[in-house]
Amino acid sequence: MLDLTHTAPKPKVIAGAKHDWELVIGMEIHAQVSSNAKLFSGASTAVGAEPNSNVAFVDAAMPGMLPVINDYCVEQAVRTGLGLKAQINLVSAFDRKNYFYPDLPQGYQISQLYHPIVGAGEVLVEMAPGIARLVRIERIHLEQDAGKSIHDMDPAMSFVDFNRTGVALMEIVSRPDIRGPEEAAAYVVKLRQILRYLGTCDGDMQHGNLRADVNVSVCRPGQYEKYQASQDFSHLGTRCEIKNMNSMRFIQLAIDYEARRQIAILEDGGVIKQETRLYDPDRNETRSMRSKEEAHDYRYFPDPDLLPLQIEQAWVDAIAASMPELPDAKKARFINDFGLTDYDASVLTADLESAGYFEAVAQGRDGKQAANWVINELFGRLNKQGLGIADSPVSSAQLGGILDLIAAGDISGKMAKDLFELVWTDGGDPAEVAAAHGMKQVTDTGAIEAAVDEIIAANPAQVEKARANPKLAGWFVGQVIKASGGKANPVVVNDLVMRKLGL
Ligand SMILES: Nc1ncnc2c1ncn2[C@@H]1O[C@H](COP(=O)(O)OP(=O)(O)OP(=O)(O)O)[C@@H](O)[C@H]1O
Ligand SMILES: [Mg+2]
Ligand SMILES: [Mg+2]
Q: pLDDT band at residue 4, thresholds of 50, 70 and 90?
């Protein structure tokens, strides 16, 4: 069962020169929909293609061309909504958001202002075991991405690449429920994790496939609670929106800078102007880009080329029936089925590849031991070499084979680490590699007994000490294992030593 009991984290408090302030943050996440074709054309969404080669006439806004909705993109938005426990709107509609920019050939972006496809949902953001923020989702709407302006190819010219023009985006809008920079970053991490589990967005932030607009305001302690009770935004401060953030670190730095900037203005008796700002990582500051446009500045109106989008409940139900297991459920299951700690379960469910690998190793084996090996040995080794789990030279079957040899008492923990190293570099079936390298733990009592007798006979003084203080018997165990060249099974040695010493 999923245990969602949690306590909310404390909001971040910043001490100004005059008094304390709290942060209030709401995020708009633009997530590129995983789909082979664009939202309103059949053109490919592949990246890295020759500039302007994946552009249909409708993407280039040729006269008379009409958009045709790609139902797979709609399905992806519905799947995302279901993954965020959100309401799915069976009727939604597309609007034109008008603005002029060289990378926007239509002169407007098709978006969904008035009737989005997805309504209210939620995301649980864990900050520590048992401490979590429930961030409410206000809406998700579908919209077109813009093209790319290129200014750095020639000092005297600007270019434009329309390959990205018309690719489907989901804008996922949160309520202002996030209360600090760390929570903001954790929210993006969690949302990205859910999208990747769902397969609706690849979450590649480096290539801008997931980017965040971060809305920040500050208020005096107590004001947020008034907003919560009434949902009346006038209790909150004026927000500034920091556009296009695609790094967890910069999101946190930008929020911190922006909050302090606003506090300084307010304590000086000034007012915050609602505006759009850009973060400059080189100078760690935000700068005004433009004053905030209101919806009416965009002259939104229903797109006359597109009928309202109507979907069937049965179709939504079919998508719901095919949902994969999501991160919270998988984590709870790992804790329950494999006895993992909260921390280990979080690490192992961070992405689907790690979770799948771990599960293959843990199935039918000691789950905790499997977790230790995957997290400490495997991840440690992969990190050292800068590899991802998909590129691991040791497969889950091979790692499972190593654990089986330990469980059978054939190799010691120390030998297992050496064996792991051998399998990592040379590959092969672990049992065969172990045999080829003479890695076999001695469990034969007869052979070990002789060594124990010999060491006891040679060290009468140690024997006296150990009989007086049984904790010192470990010394004999160490000696016997050393004498065997590390091959004697420590469990067997320990039993014999204790018996021979009469302990
Ligand atoms: N006082 C506030 N402090 C912090 N965040 C706020 C505040 N008021 C609203 N927000 C957040 O600002 C965001 C507003 O996004 P929304 O898409 O609704 O409008 P927008 O930013 O005006 O539109 P656009 O998509 O054109 O940028 C939401 O995430 C909301 O939670
Ligand atoms: Mg928005
Ligand atoms: Mg916005």
A: low
Are the beta carbons of 118 and 80 closer than 8 angstroms? yes
Closest-CA residue to 28 (of 219, 245, 282): 245
Whole-number pLDDT of residue 3: 52
26 within 8 A of 177, measured Cβ to Cβ: yes
| Proximal ligand: closest to the CA of 295 | 1
Tens digit of each residue's pLDDT (9 = 90 or more) over 282-326 = 998 898 887 776 767 889 999 999 999 999 999 999 999 999 999
CA 105-107-109 angle, to 5 degrees, is 95
CATH architecture for residues 445-500: Orthogonal Bundle (1.10)
Phi, psi of 133 (to 5 degrees): -105, 130
Q: For the residues of 286-338, what is the DSSP string, one character each?
A: EEEEEEPPPGGGGT-EE-TTSPPEE--HHHHHHHHHTPPPPHHHHHHHHHHHH
Calculate how far, in angstroms, residue 148's C-alpha sits from the geometric centre of ligand 3.
20
**pLDDT number for residue 2:** 47
Say what the pTM is: 0.89
Helix (H) or strand (E) segment spanning residue 343: helix 342-348
Residue extent(s) of CATH 1.10.10 domains in the chain = 445-500
What residues flank ligand 1, with Cβ below 6 Å? 24-28, 173-176, 213, 215-217, 233, 236-237, 239, 241
Q: Which of 25, 27, 28 to mutate to test the pocket of ligand 1 (most atoms within 8 A of CB)?
A: 28
3-state secondary structure of 201: coil
488 φ/ψ sector (left φ>0, alpha ψ -120 to 50, else beta): beta
Pocket test for ligand 1, best of 109, 112, 173, 298 (most atoms within 8 A of CB): 173
Q: What are phi and psi of 175, to 5 degrees?
A: -75, 165
